[in-house]
Amino acid sequence: MRQYRWFINIAIVSVLLDQLSKGLIVSSLKLHQSIELLANFVHITYVRNPGAAFGILADNSLRLPFFFLVSIVAGIGILWYLKRIQGGSRRLQFGLGLIFSGAVGNLIDRIRFHEVIDFIDIHWYQYHWPAFNIADSAICIGVGLMLIDSWLEEKNKAKIV
Fold this sequence. Notes:
Layout: H1 5-28, E1 34-38, E2 42-49, H2 63-84, H3 90-113, E3 116-124, E4 127-128, H4 134-160
């Protein structure tokens, strides 16, 4: 258990931050209400996303079972991989913990609300990136850390040969 402490700690902290931030948004803002943080760049805007990234599958009747299944399979896959590599590096555990927590955070929303709470609204004047949340950010950062870890691992192997 001790060898997985980085994974466990980051997963717990990240899920808590995700759920606390979403709770704050839901209790403080009305749906579609927006607060400007940086003019023409960053707003906090309360939206709900019934689909996946960029609203993919939002209108599909099988979206909920599909997203439940994908989240569960992803979580099991991450735990299997973590066990297989016996913890791995701190960077890899950190990345896997972020990905796991992102999947769990958005799964909690789908179970509670049948859609995901998003609120980070990045834009340049009228050109908007789709709103996202801390769970989405955790997944992206986690994948980036995994790629960096993989790249550094390959680089180290090349030095040995």
